[in-house]
Every structure is written in C-alpha cells, then in structure tokens.
Automatic annotation (TrEMBL):
Catalyzes the oxidation of uric acid to 5-hydroxyisourate, which is further processed to form (S)-allantoin. Pathway: Purine metabolism; urate degradation; (S)-allantoin from urate: step 1/3. Urate binds at residues 57-58, 158, 175, 224, 250. It comes from the Bacteria. Keywords: Oxidoreductase, Purine metabolism. 5-hydroxyisourate binds at residues 57, 158, 175, 224, 250. The active site is at 12 (charge relay system), 57 (charge relay system), 252 (charge relay system). This is Uricase. It catalyses: urate + O2 + H2O = 5-hydroxyisourate + H2O2.
Length: 303
C-alpha cells in the first residue's frame, strides 16, 4: 500500500480590493473579493517542504492589487483573465490558475436631487460572481450572481404532486414564490470569436433582466419549471453562452392559520419560514456546447 498526494492547488482567498478611479472629480468605484489559486508542480512543497516552485500566496495577493491599478478593472471577468494569464504565462512553474471574483455593487448617493461624485450607497441586491480558469487545456470564463432575492405574490402554484402516506402538503393554486437565486453561466465564444470580444459588462445586466423577467411572467407550476424557463431564455438570447447552472432555495411562505381567531386569510398573511427550504437545482445546456473542460473545477467555492 502506498499513500499518494492527490489534487493540489493553493492561493490567496478573499482579498478584499476596492479600486477608485479618480482621474476626474466624478469618481468610479469597483469593490471586489478576489481569490487566486495556482495549479502546477507544487508537490514537493507538500511532500518535502520545498518552496522553490511556490509563488507565495502573499505575492498572488499583491499582484491582484497591483493589477487593479496597472491593468484597471473593466469587469470581474476581464480582471480575472488578466490575473490568470499573468500567473500561467509569466510565472514559470505555474501550469494553471483559477481566479474567483465576487463584486459588490454601489450606487451613487443622491444629494439635493443630484448624483454625488464620490459618495455611494451599497446596493442591497445580488453579488456578482466570476470564475476564470486558464491552463494548458484552454481558457474558461464563468459569469454569475448569487443572493438575488426574488418574490412573487401570485402567479405560482404547486399541485398535482406525487403523494404517499407521509404527504401532508396541501395543494396550492395561488402561493407566494420566493428564492435567493444563484446562477452561473459559462461563456463559450462562437466560431471566429474570442473571449476578449465579449462585452462582459453589457451582458451581465441583460442576463439578470432576462432571469427576473421570466421569474415574473411565467405562471409557475413549480420552481423547477421557473428555473428551466430562466436558463433556456438566457441561452436563447446569447449564442456565446453554452450553459447555465441555477440553484434556488425555495423560500417557503406558508399561509398562516388565522382562521383559529375567526379571521379569514385570503392569501394575505404568511409565515416566512427560513428553514428548512426546498433546494431546486438545474443545469441548462446547449446540446452542441463545447466541452466544459476545467471551467467548473472550483477553489474556494466563492463563485
Ligand atoms: O416549486 C416547488 N417544487 C417542489 O418540488 C416542491 N416541494 C414542495 O414541498 N414544495 C415545492 N415547490
């Protein structure tokens, strides 16, 4: 019997990085949480304590801060590609890099009816995510979001489900449907196109809008059906997106029994339970999608 070292990677997780562009009185802000992970011949660091191939995680962190100024941040995806290219192409032993980015959005404060130049309020909505991998097999970019909290107060039902001796759930023709959506989409440039041709900044709000629209407008027979509609619509809208992965906790809202107090409840008063929750997941893919390769191999699970 031999004990072997399996998969390895190492890096700096969750470098909080804020970039202000202040070339004019009207500043711009990007607020990121950056995770880097390197893959390559680092076995001897584990087996023998030999650091000769190890680019310190501290250096990886420094590189992210340096690039925030020298390369700028046009999008989480493009920033991740810059970092991944650098580690793989410029740092000799590195064979692969995985960069995961979260972005927290800010909106300008409105003061006396006008947008302020250098004061922002944190936007309370979703966190934008990106996961970038570069290695000898190719380059992979995944965009995404998480914690997009959505609720519709009608237009959702759940009936006709399988029942056995343990089923107590009543059929519901008109219910609240709510979730905190996590979605990730894999970019796959079409023929003649490269990742650099994709306008990640323009695509992000459009994907979010498509998903919100289908959540709102589909009369939902189940959260499963809603996820399918959202994922399919994104693929129909963008030929350079190959695959969408969705994860949706079903944030149950139970009609509260105020009949016990002689008060009728016509879907007006609910108990919003936080746990347990149904967890509905789906992958929606083109049947001719290029191979995902290393795209989904994760590091810190941030994105
Ligand atoms: O949209 C739903 N899907 C389910 O699978 C399910 N199961 C459940 O109890 N409620 C719901 N709602």
């Amino acid at each position: 019997m031999a004990i072997i070292l399996g998969d390895i990677q190492y890096g700096k997780a969750e470098s909080r990085l804020v970039r202000i562009v202040r070339d004019t009185p009207r500043h711009e802000i990007r607020d990121l949480n950056v995770t880097t992970a390197l893959r390559g011949p680092f076995q001897n660091a584990y087996l023998e304590g030999d650091q000769s191939n190890v680019l310190p995680t501290d250096t990886q962190k420094n590189t992210a801060y340096a690039f925030a100024k020298s390369k700028g941040i046009t999008s989480p995806e493009a920033f991740g590609l810059e970092l991944a290219h650098h580690f793989v192409h410029d740092v000799d032993p590195v064979e692969g890099a995985r960069i995961e980015v979260e972005e927290y959005a800010w909106e300008r404060a409105v003061v006396d009816g006008a947008e302020h130049d250098h004061t922002w309020l944190r936007k309370g909505q979703e966190v934008r995510t990106a996961a970038i991998t570069v290695d000898a097999t190719g380059e992979y970019v995944i965009g995404g979001l998480k914690d997009l909290v959505l609720l519709k107060s009608t237009g959702s039902e759940f009936t006709g489900f399988l029942k056995d001796e343990y089923t107590t759930l009543p059929e519901e023709k008109d219910r609240i449907m709510a979730t905190a959506l996590q979605a990730q989409w894999r970019f796959a440039p079409t023929a003649g196109q490269s990742l650099d041709d994709i306008d990640f900044e323009a695509v992000y709000p459009e994907i979010k809008a498509i998903m919100v629209k289908h959540f709102a407008t589909l009369h939902s027979l189940a959260l499963q059906q809603t996820l399918w509609a959202m994922g399919k619509a994104v693929l129909e809208a963008f030929d350079f997106i190959a695959e969408v992965r969705l994860k949706a906790p079903n944030k149950h809202h139970f009609t509260y029994d105020i009949g016990r107090f002689g008060i009728e409840n016509k879907q007006e008063v609910f108990w919003a339970a936080d746990r347990p929750y149904g967890l509905i997941e789906a992958q929606v893919t083109r049947d001719d999608a290029p191979d995902a390769g290393e795209a989904w191999r994760f590091s810190a699970g941030l994105a």
